[in-house]
Amino acid sequence: MAKAYSNWKYLALALIFSFLSPYIAASSLSFTTWNIEWLTTTPSKQFIESKRTQADFDALANHFATMNTGVLAFQEVNDIAALRAVVGKDYDIYLSERANTNNKRHQFENINQYTGFAIRKGLSVERQSDIRLDQLKNSKLRFATYMIVTPKQKPPLHILSVHLKARCSGAYKNSKDCQVLMSQGKALNQWILDREKADEQYMILGDFNHNLSYQGDWLWKAITQTSSASLATLSTQPRCKVRSRHQPKRLHQFRSLIDHIIVSKELSLSAPKQVTFPSEQVLKYHLSDHCPLQTTLE
Question: What pTM value is reported for the model?
Answer without folding.
Answer: 0.90
